[in-house]
Every structure is written in C-alpha cells, then in structure tokens.
C-alpha cells in the first residue's frame, strides 16, 4: 500500500486507529476455545466488528509464534481475512545482517504479503535496507519505544547531546523515504513526540502506548500530526479484551468507535 | 545447560566451535530436494558428521521462518536431533516489551527447549529480563556485530566517549550474570574483542564472522579467551556449504576438524 492510499483511508474513515491483534489463550473468551482455530476465530470477529473504524491491524508475531507451526497458520488466515484496503503491520521487530534481513523481508512481504514490518535499528543500515527494497512495502523502525527500558539506551546522549533515538531518526532518513519508512514513537511523553516530529516532519509515526500503557491521545495528535495525518495510533488490549464474554466483538466495536470519534475531532483540528 | 557443563564439553572436545545451521533451498545439495523434509535431512547429516567437533549449534530462525509453518517443523526436528550435551542457540534476535519478550522466551525455552537465544538490546532492561528468568537458559545479547552497519549506532560515542556497544556491555551486567548472559562480539577486529573482554572478563562471547566474514581465529582467541575459554566461535557457510555434492557431510566434517584442530592449539596456549 502506498502513502496516498493510506491517507485516503484515514480521511474516509476519519480515523488513524491501528488495532493490535494479540490473542492469548488465557484471555480470549472461553467459548472460542472449542473452535478448531481459536486465534483466527477471535481475530475474525474482532475484524468484523472494527474494520469500519480502524485503518490498520497489527498482529504481534510473538503471540502466534508461541503456538508453534499452527500459530503461523492462524496468522496467515488472519492476514488473508483483513480487507485489502486496510494497512497491515507485522509487529516482529526483526533485524539481522543483510542476507538474513532479506529472508525476513521475503517471509513477511512475499510469503505473507504484509504491508509493513517493525524493525530494530541496532545493527544499522545494512540490516534495514533489505526491507526497503520491496515496492509499496514499509519499514516501521523502532526509534523511541514506550517501555521503561527505553531509558537504558534510546535516551543515551552522544557527544553532541543528541539521544540515540534522535540519531536513529536522523540517520535512517538517508536509507528510506516518507513513502517506505515509518517510525515507532512511544506515546507516553508529548514533548518527545514534538521533537521527533521536528526531526521527521513528513514520515508516519506508529504510536503504541495509548490506552493500557497510559499515553494521551490528544497530546499525541497535537504534537505528532502533520498534513497527511502522519499518525497510526495503536490500541490492543483496550479494544480486543473489552469484554471476555460472547459479546466481545460488540464490546471491541464500542471501544474502537470511541477512539475513532475522538480521532475525528483531532483530524479536524490538527491535520491541516 | 549451565556454564560448567559447557566448559566441560569444550575441554572434552578441545573445541569452541559453533556451527550455524542455516539451510537454504538454493544452496543445499540437489539430491536432498526430493526428500520429505530437505532442511531436516540436510541438518541431520551435518550434525551426524560434525557433532564430535562442535560444542554448539546455532540455527538462524530466519531460514526456517521463510518456509512458513513447515519450516518450524524442520526447526523442531533439528533441535530434537541435536545431542543433549551440545549447546543450542536460537539465533532469533528478538526483543520487545516485557510481556511480549516473555512470550518469545516461552516459545524458545519451553515450547522448543533451546539453551539460549540471541536478543537485541535496543529496548532496554525490561525487554531482556524475561529471558533471564529461566533456569539454565541463556541470553546472548547483541553488543558488537560483525556487519558494516555496526558502525551506525553501536560505535556511536556518548558524552563520556564510550561507544554504545560498551554501554550495552556495562549496563547489562546488572541484569544477568556470567551464568545466564553471553554477548555477541563481532570478530572482525582484534582490538575490539580485547576491549570487550576487559569490560566483561568472565562472560562467554559468541563470535560470528570468522571464515566467510573474514575474522582471524588466532586474534579472537588471543584477545578474547579467558580461564573458562569464554568463546563460542561460529562458522556457518564455510562448513555447511563446503561441498554441494552428495559428499557434503564429509566435506563439512573436514572443515569442522580443521577449525577444531586450530582451536585445540589456542585452548592450550591461551585458556589458562
């Protein structure tokens, strides 16, 4: 999917909501455990109920990998079920030497046809480039994450006073463009999003950490939005586990609508 | 496996050789393509011919993942086939927020029973800790990798003049011990290994990049060895693709023996 198609969908749905499809056996409604493929059954109903309000779905690969080979089948079925106009993110945080990154890229972009994959920057340019060589596919590079451990290295300042995550933002803009490179920017701090936006004015940011992880959507929109929206804001647990009963699809829908309604306001206010 | 058992095996075999099990359809001998599970068949023969000379096997997960669900079956069969006294490394370079890292840890340590997994440090402490909570299991943390891109961020100096990879080495020693934490240290530069060894005198280092990637084994041993050896030196392509004919197992054995013989000398010289 290209940037224009993504922005078109954001405008059409008045939403920049990304939903994390992270099923877990101990959390999905009990009645699904009887089905042949509980993860797919769960995701299918989440998608059925939220596809009108979400512009992206983000399965975290760890959840599927944990089931062994059948988890990969659930993942593939889920991906195939997502409507083609919705952006898909393999949250895999891969990154390895060149020929290995190329294999990962083929796996997620060709074998599975995801639109994008999250990539860790630690191994540098030649670990990221192989992902950028696929037409209409995207790298979402970890810059600033929302967990406590982001303080350990991402915030470490270099000799010029720049934290590592800013070096990642600056240097990686030589590797890709606003048409194939996005960044993960943790949502827990408004001033950090403002700084990141100054450093990468036209790139999309994937923002985790709104909702369960406690970030403010208004702050994210105010400081992070650009003229093409430039934001995908993710919510996982707050939506997919809104109810543990048979009504989980409807409950997920209600939460998705709530976020979409709020997002609509911010699009009107800040996306100009 | 604990550190003592690993060192015992190193002494018994006079070897600190790790073999990368990275099969690829276009590279494994043609006659194997007819078998039901070419990757397992390939690995099985490599293991049969090299198990007396290697102390560790390291499947790079990308190669198996690229086959979809059946790749994970080949991986599991390979792992089950490796003799139990040989150290196993899931070269997966994972790392995510806490609950996700915990899932990855369960997948590789419980579902699949690997002894260790490679982990990327970018997301910091809480992304690494979940892997360290499993008894007799190991994290092999990326510190300094052997690819060109290691210059982009790993060598970036902070305000005190310390490159990032040194910060990783120093800070992470508060998270784990020499009994559950190793480091990836790229082999292409002897002085870097010397520095890393000073910063982490007692931890094991996994050293890629000897052979195909051009590092000198003698230099690695001279600067990197400690009293418990402290080194696992990996070779992949130089061993597993030593021949593309039906004699590939024997050819792999010859290359493994060559390295083991050289390693024996260095163990006598430097491991004291």
Structure description:
- Chain A is an alpha/beta fold.
- Chain A has one domain (3-270): TIM Barrel, CATH 3.20.20.
- Helices cover 43% and strands 15% of the residues of chain A.
- Chain A has helices at residues 3-13, 38-50, 61-65, 69-81, 98-111, 125-132, 164-172, 190-199, 217-224, 237-240, 248-270; strands at 17-21, 56-59, 87-94, 116-119, 138-144, 181-185, 205-207, 231-235.
- An 8-stranded parallel beta barrel of chain A has the order 1-2-3-4-5-6-7-8, surrounded by 6 helices.
- In chain A, α2 runs parallel beside α4 (69-81), α8 (190-199) runs parallel beside α9 (217-224) and α9 (217-224) packs parallel to α11 (248-270).
- The relative contact order of chain A is 0.15.
- The mean pLDDT of chain A is 95.
- Chains A and B meet through α3, α4, α5, α6 and α7 of A and α3, α4, α5, α6 and α7 of B.
Summarize the structure.
Two copies of one chain form a homodimer. With 272 residues, chain A is α/β, with parallel strands linked by helices.
What sort of overall outline of chain A do the alpha carbons produce when their principal axes are compared?
globular
* Rg of chain A (C-alpha, Å): 18 Å
Strands of the largest sheet of chain A, in order across it?
1-2-3-4-5-6-7-8
Domain count of chain A: the total is 1
Give the beta-strand count of chain A: 8
The oligomeric status of these chains comes to homodimer
CATH topology of chain A: TIM Barrel
The residue-averaged pLDDT of chain A reads: 95
Unreliable spans of chain A? none
Separation, N- and C-terminal Cα atoms of chain A: 23 Å
The topology string of helices and strands of chain A comes to HEHEHHEHEHEHEHEHEHH
Q: How big a fraction of the residues of chain A is strand?
A: 15-25%
Structural class of chain A: alpha/beta
Sheet having the most strands of chain A: 8 strands, parallel, barrel
CATH superfamily of chain A: Aldolase class I
Biggest interface: A-B, 53 and 53 residues
CATH architecture of chain A: Alpha-Beta Barrel
């Amino acid at each position: 999917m290209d940037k224009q198609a993504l922005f078109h969908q954001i405008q059409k749905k008045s939403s920049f909501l990304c939903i994390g499809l992270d099923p877990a056996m101990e959390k999905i409604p009990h009645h699904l455990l009887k089905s042949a493929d509980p993860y797919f059954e769960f995701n299918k109903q989440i998608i059925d109920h939220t596809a009108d309000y979400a512009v992206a779905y983000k399965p975290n690969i760890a959840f599927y990998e944990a089931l062994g080979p059948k988890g990969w089948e659930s993942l593939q079925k889920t991906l195939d079920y997502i409507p083609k106009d919705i952006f898909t993110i393999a949250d895999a945080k891969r990154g390895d030497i060149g020929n290995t990154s190329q294999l990962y890229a083929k796996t997620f972009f060709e074998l599975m046809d995801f639109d994008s994959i999250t990539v860790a920057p630690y191994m540098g340019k030649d670990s990221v480039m192989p992902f950028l060589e696929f037409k209409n596919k995207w790298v979402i590079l970890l810059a600033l994450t929302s967990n406590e451990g982001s303080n350990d290295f991402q915030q470490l300042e270099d000799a010029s006073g720049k934290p590592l995550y800013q070096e990642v933002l600056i240097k990686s803009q030589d590797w890709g463009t606003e048409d194939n490179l996005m960044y993960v920017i943790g949502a827990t701090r408004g001033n950090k999003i403002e700084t990141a936006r100054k450093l990468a004015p036209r790139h999309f940011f994937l923002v985790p950490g709104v909702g369960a992880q406690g970030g403010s959507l208004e702050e994210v929109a105010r400081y992070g939005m650009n003229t093409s929206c430039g934001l995908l804001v993710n919510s996982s647990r707050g939506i997919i586990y809104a109810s543990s009963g048979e009504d989980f699809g409807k409950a997920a829908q209600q939460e998705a609508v709530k976020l979409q309604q709020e997002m609509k306001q911010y699009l009107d206010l800040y996306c100009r």
